[in-house]
Every structure is written in structure tokens, then in C-alpha cells.
Amino acid sequence: MSVIVRYAPSPTGRLHLGNARPAILNWLFAKSKGGQYILRLDDTDTARSTEEFAQGIETDLEWLGITPDAKFRQSDRFALYDAARDRLIADGRLYPCYETADELDRKRKRARALGKPPIYDRAALNLTAEDKAKLEAEGRKPHWRFKLDGRPVHFVDLIKGEQTVNTASMSDPVLIREDGSYLYTLPSVVDDIEMGVTHVIRGEDHVSNTGTQIEIFEALGSSAPIFAHHNLLTDSEGQGFSKRLGSLSLSQLREDGFEPLAVATMAAITGTSLPVEPYDSLEAIAGKLDFSMISHGAARFDTAELASLNARIIHAMDFETAAPKLAGIEPLNAELWAVFRPNLSKISDFSEFLPIVTGPIENGVAEEDRDFINTARELLPEEPWSEETWGQWTGAIKEKTGRKGKALFLPLRLALTGRADGPELKSLLPVLGRKVSVDRLS
Ligand code: GLU
């Protein structure tokens, strides 16, 4: 079977880490199976969907390294949903209801007061043609419910194992609103059938939807795809990410200078048994992550873990990969990259260290170290310099002055770089060269 998956966000907000998770898990699964990845924008809610959000989603996915094999928008496909609607109506599985929101609310309250579950009572099924005509003459418009068949729905989830959804304890779901617009449930099934989707990988908040949707697949004469419901990513307090909040949105993380691979790795691997560590690519993760590794418990995202992974990715990054990310920054070469790389937490930190080589730097040497620095200058070896030079030089200074440890190294660092921390002096010294070093020690 050739695998076809889809990622189906609604363009009603920007993507955040929480909804990046299914985007990436679908991608990893498609990659590991040599399958197809469809991006489907679930934009039947035309009031809340915007073109700007649709574009934003594509930009975010591209940034993460996801390039869909095909793209669809549900708003282009209403004819298909209308055909499915008509078929369900003809088969008696979709029926019109005329209760207002208030009336439904009252029914629910009454049921609760009687100690019954607040399930829709299917009163609309008893309406005669005459009743309906009367209601419509009053100006009421129907919403449409799918008639659940009341038998428990079983399926084998690739992550959660055997699942049973007891649809008998659910209200018949509304598939079409009063204004004729579709809720997500039916168009999603119609598209999954029409697009030949083999695996639906989505958050575990959809498990009961799956029960309903499996019934709809069958009512439309199709077998259901295979399902995999993953745990949801939460923030460190266990709260879900809100789309409209912009908290940890991908665009924010991008602006903050995080590496896309660090973000993608965190979104995919948090809450699994795979270690959070640098991977070369999404493909490399795809080769390792298996659904059996996804925990059944929570997936708590930790900002500090993202920051540390980001730094580790940069520390391992070769110059060819880094160079395009630093485009426009001067000077830039493999040697400088190698010197600064171990000190960067984000790629943008590179420019922060550049003044160390380009100058001018602020000489931070304390008064009482002046003589020591003069002695050090006199002991500077002749060029050519290499990574060995630092050891030879400081060895000679140590012998002459008797200083060691911090008393030896800190004044040298302050004199040469103007700061108390930063790149390893052993690799920096040959980059500075003798002339600049003499100047700074003077
Ligand atoms: N638009 C739905 C959502 O964002 C899609 C869920 C699904 O994958 O079926 O929750």
C-alpha cells in the first residue's frame, strides 16, 4: 500500500508548536514510508479563515522543512461535500433539525436535572413534512445532524492501540449549520476518501471524532483509513498552546532566531522515548521515530530544552550550512565560524562576537595587571602562529611571572578581547595575528 497522509490545519490562526506536532509527525511518517504528504487547508469556516493565515501556514511549514506533495483547500471543493450531503440525506443518515441554540440549551438542562446525559433527544426525527413546512414558514432554517447508529465503534490506533468509541453516549453530530456551512467533520471524511488518504495522524483530542467519522466513512460506502492519535504538546505548565495567543508561534520562534530543525525536533520528539539531541535532518528523525515510541502520557514542552538543543545544533553545524544563514554579515569565513561556533546559542550571536576580530574593543585590563600584560607582550612568539601558539606563549608567561589559572588567563583575555568570556583563545590567537595582539597588549 502506498502511504498518503494529510496535514489539515484550519487557516484561522498562525501555527504554534502544538499544531506543528501533527504537521511534522505526518511528514516523518510519509518520509519513512516513501509516501505522499498532502497539505489540506480546512477552510470551510469562511468567516474565520483568512488568506493571510493560509499563506502564513505555508511559510511556517516551509521554514520547518516540510514541502507538501499536493495542496488543497476545502473551500474549492464544496461540490463534493454537497454530493455527499445529498447521499446521506437520501439514505436517511442526515436529518434536519430546527431547534434554536436556546432550545437545545434548555433540553440539556432538563436532561441534567433528571440525571440523564445531556444527549440530543432526536426529536427532529419525528417531525412530519407538514411540521417542517410550518417551521420553515416561521423563518426557521434547519441545521443537519448525522444519525449515529449507536453501536460501539472499534478501531486499532497505531499509537494508542485498541480503541472503542461509544457513540451511543454521544449526540448526533451537527454536520451542517443553519446557514448551510459545513462543520469540519463531513468535508474531512469526503476528502480523505477522495484523496485516498491511508493514514490519519492527528491529536488525541480527535479520538471521539474518529468514532463519528468512521461511521460516516461507512455511510459513504468507504472503509476508514488507519488512525494514529498522538499526545498533545503542552507548555511547561501543562497548558495547551492557543492558536490565537501567538504564544510560541512558529513565526515568533523564527524571529527569535531559533533553528527550524531545533523547533521541528522539539515538536516531534517531546513526549516520546527518543532522546532530544541534534539530528542531521528531519529524514534522520524519520528513520528513528516509530509510533511505538510516542508516550501515552503528556508531552510537555520545555523552553530551556529548546534553547539547549538549538545551541547543540549550532555547535555541530558546518560552515557551508551556517553561511547562508549569516548572509550579509562581514567578515565571514570558515575560520571565524570555527572560532565563534562553540560560543553561540543562536546563529545571530555570531555578529555579537565579531568586534573581537574587527575591533575596536574596550580594553578591560585592571591597573594592577598592566606590568603583567607588558611582560606578556614581550613574550609573544614570532609568527607563523597556530593553535599551539597559545600554549607555548602562556607557558612562557607562567614561567616568567609565576602566575597561573585565572590570574594568568583572565587579564590576557580582557586585553585581547575586551570581554571576560567568549571564544577559546587558543583558536582565536592565530585569527587575530601578531600585529593586532601586540596592539591590544599595548
Ligand atoms: N482541521 C482539523 C484540526 O485542525 C483537522 C483535524 C484532522 O486532522 O482531521 O483540528
Feature tags:
Rossmann fold; three-stranded parallel sheet; 12 strands; binds glutamic acid
Structure description:
It is built from 19 helices and twelve strands. The chain is mainly alpha-helical and 442 residues long. The protein folds into four domains: 257 residues, Rossmann fold, CATH 3.40.50.620; 42 residues, no CATH class; 34 residues, no CATH class; 75 residues, Arc Repressor Mutant, subunit A, CATH 1.10.10.350. A three-stranded parallel β-sheet has the order 1-2-3. It has a three-stranded antiparallel β-sheet with strand order 4-5-8. It is elongated, with a radius of gyration of 31 Å. Pfam families: Anticodon_2, tRNA-synt_1c. It comes from Pelagibacterium lentulum. InterPro entries: aa-tRNA-synth_I_cd-bd, aa-tRNA-synth_I_codon-bd_sub2, aa-tRNA-synth_I_CS, aa_tRNA-synth_I_cd-bd_sf, Glu-tRNA-ligase_bac/mito, Glu/Gln-tRNA-synth, Glu/Gln-tRNA-synth_Ib_cat-dom, GluQ/Sye.
Order of strands side by side in the largest beta sheet?
1-2-3
What is the level-2 CATH architecture name of the largest domain? 3-Layer(aba) Sandwich
Q: How large a portion of the residues is in β-strands, by DSSP E?
A: 5-15%
Give the termini separation. 73 Å
Question: Main β-sheet: number of strands, strand sense, barrel status?
Answer: 3 strands, parallel
Rg on CA atoms, Å: 31 Å
